[in-house]
Amino acid sequence: MKIYILLPGKIKPKVLAAAQEEYVARLNVFGVEVVEYKTEKVSSRSPEKTKQAEAERIFKLLKVGDYLVACDERGKKIQTLEMAELIKASRQGGFPLAGKRRMVVVIGGALGLSDSVRERADAVWSLSSLVMAGGVARIVLLEGLYRAFTVVEKHPYHNE
């Protein structure tokens, strides 16, 4: 099963770009693909309309049979070993990914994800109880996924 990560626009602040590039390269080894989707400018329209416009862009990137994970601070706190179990399930076609074609993990734009994305999601993960800048959330997600892959591969990166 292919794993896709959907990230909003370009990383900000730019100082975090090198860290993102490092983790994207590490995850590529495991067949993970990172896609940046175009975000909406925060403008005079309502925040809900802005989030819904971004949701429509996200939905266009999804396919029938995708297992969608939305990252939102109001979601379930995900732990490394839980991520690792989900990665194992993606490789073996086990629960909860049985019958799914891809696992897609998405982070929202500056205003977060719309309710429609959270409702469509098969799982909603909280990367932290803190609200984070988008660039920081990206690094936390990418490092967390990389660490989970190293657990699955029994690589010494994750010290248990």
Report on this structure.
The chain is of the alpha/beta class. About 40% of the residues lie in helices and about 20% in strands. The chain has 5 helices and 5 strands, in the order E-H-E-H-E-H-E-H-E-H. A 5-stranded parallel sheet has the order 2-1-4-3-5. Helix 1 runs parallel beside helix 5 and helix 3 packs across helix 5. The longest helix has 19 residues. The radius of gyration is 15 Å and the shape is globular. The two termini are about 25 Å apart. About 30% of the residues are buried. The model has no long low-confidence stretch (mean pLDDT about 95).
Cross-sheet strand order for the largest sheet: 2-1-4-3-5
Could you give the count of β-strands?
5
Shape: globular
CATH architecture tag: 3-Layer(aba) Sandwich
Taking all Cα atoms into account, the compactness measure Rg is 15 Å
Mean pLDDT: 93
Assess the beta-strand content as a share of residues.
15-25%
Uncertain runs are none
CATH class: Alpha Beta
CATH fold type: Alpha/beta knot
Question: What is the H/E order?
Answer: EHEHEHEHEH
CA-CA gap between termini: 26 Å
Counting DSSP H or I runs of 4 or more residues, the number of helices is 5
How many structural domains in the coordinates?
Answer: 1
Largest beta-sheet details: 5 strands, parallel
Output the CATH homologous superfamily.
SPOUT methyltransferase, trefoil knot domain
Class by helix and strand content? alpha/beta
